[in-house]
Design brief:
seven-stranded mixed β-sheet, alpha/beta, Rossmann fold, 2 domains, six-stranded mixed β-sheet
């Protein structure tokens, strides 16, 4: 029975009654704890994920405002991942060639972070504008020569952007669509700011791959939606936009890049093929979503069994990385410093802090060489190859790498 507290779909407004997975209660995944605050309690929110029975958008309720999540001390900086910088540079070259961009083309990125992507357009002499709500991160971009407006994007900001910067020939939105609580305000902004012949690209982790590879740790409070082509096309259509082309990407465990334009263009064969693949995978049926929780619970049991056995043998296990996904993973599994002594991260903004919830200390990468652990648990499994190359020195003392998703693997 539904009541006034029943959540509703942010895409189609249908009541949300079907559970995709319930990960308990967890703190905000990017709310890293300073040593000055270590005696203060974390604030926990439900991490209960639903699937809409009408449009099949997988989603969370909104328990915290976007302003609280993406505050001035937001700790994610894109430029600390070498593979992501390479991805951004390749995108710029690809989009420039594909769309025939010139020095006269206006480029906008929504959620432009520290300028990791727009700087490559600046290098090509193109006018750019970043939109980034986290003031601290935006300041880094400005210092690097990337003009950036500190604000959230939507219909109102799109009107200001078009009036002051001009219509955009290319708008990039990498891994931000999932972060938006109001999908229609956000997508409606693209319809306003985009030039009549312009193109917008949206990259996001593909929920089909999330399901196939049990990537439950990519679920956290700042990711409000988990997206398929099937679920998002009607949202674009409501605002006069169409998915013209599509690419599959290896990033973040398997992503889609959609090339979106104003209505009036036909979809390419790649778009038609993905529609059919998603239907064949069952993304248009409720039953395909409801067994996900069983696979997640098995990953938890396997991880705890490994960590407990290592502790009882006296073998030290440390982590690598302090990504948001790692916090979802550790908090769901109930792992603390007794099982994972510390974790390391290249981002100096995180050094000396504690992971939210688990309160595991964050150290510089050099701590691994000093500690010489038996195992390093890679929390950002999506950049496993990069991490194992950076930390290959652990082999000199017999150290081994561990990845827990989609299943426990020791190498």
């Amino acid at each position: 029975m539904m009541d006034s507290t029943t959540p509703h779909c942010r895409a189609c407004d249908a009541p949300l009654v079907t559970t995709f997975v319930d990960l308990g209660v967890q703190p905000l995944s990017n709310s890293y704890v300073s040593l000055e605050r270590k005696r203060e309690p974390d604030i926990f929110y439900p991490l209960h994920v639903y699937v809409c029975d009408r449009c099949f958008l997988v989603q969370l309720e909104s328990f915290e405002s976007r302003e609280a999540i993406f505050s001035a001390d937001y700790a994610y900086y894109s430029s600390f991942a070498d593979s992501w910088i390479a991805h951004a540079k390749a995108y710029v070259a690809h989009a420039t060639q594909k769309l025939g961009l010139t020095r006269a083309s206006r480029i906008v990125e929504i959620a432009s972070n520290d300028g990791y992507l727009l700087r490559w357009f600046v290098e090509r002499g193109m006018p750019v504008m970043g939109i980034e709500p986290a003031a601290g991160v935006a300041a880094v971009a400005v210092a690097a020569g990337v003009p950036t407006r500190v604000e959230f994007f939507g219909v109102d900001s799109a009107r200001r952007l078009r009036a002051e910067f001009g219509p955009a020939d290319l708008m990039a939105a990498n891994n931000v669509l999932a972060h938006v609580p109001d999908l229609h305000d956000f997508v409606g902004g693209f319809a306003i700011a985009l030039a009549e012949t312009g193109t917008a690209t949206f990259e996001f982790p593909h929920v089909m791959r999330l399901i196939e590879d049990a990537e439950f740790d990519t679920i956290y409070h700042e990711h409000f939606s988990y997206i398929s082509l099937l679920a998002i096309e009607p949202v674009f259509a409501k605002h006069g936009l169409v998915v013209h082309d599509l690419e599959e990407l290896p990033t973040h465990g398997g992503s889609l890049r959609l090339w979106v334009r104003h209505a009036g263009v036909e979809p390419t064969p790649a778009v038609l093929a993905m529609r059919e693949r998603e239907r064949a995978a069952g993304l248009g049926t409720r039953e395909s979503y409801t067994k996900f929780g069983e696979r997640v619970a098995k990953i938890k049991r396997d991880t705890l069994r490994f960590l407990i056995d290592a502790a009882e043998r006296g073998e030290r296990v440390v982590g690598y990385g302090a990504p948001a996904k790692g916090n979802t993973f550790l908090n769901y599994c109930g792992v603390g410093p007794d099982l994972l002594a510390f974790t390391c991260d290249r981002n100096p903004q995180k050094h000396g802090k504690l992971l939210p919830g688990s309160r595991i200390p964050i150290m510089p990468p050099e701590a691994i060489d000093a500690e010489r652990p038996a195992f390093v648990l890679i929390l950002p499994w999506n950049i496993e190859a990069e991490v194992t190359e950076q930390l290959k020195s652990i082999r000199t003392w017999g150290g081994r790498f561990v990845v827990a998703i989609p299943h426990l693997r020791i190498s």
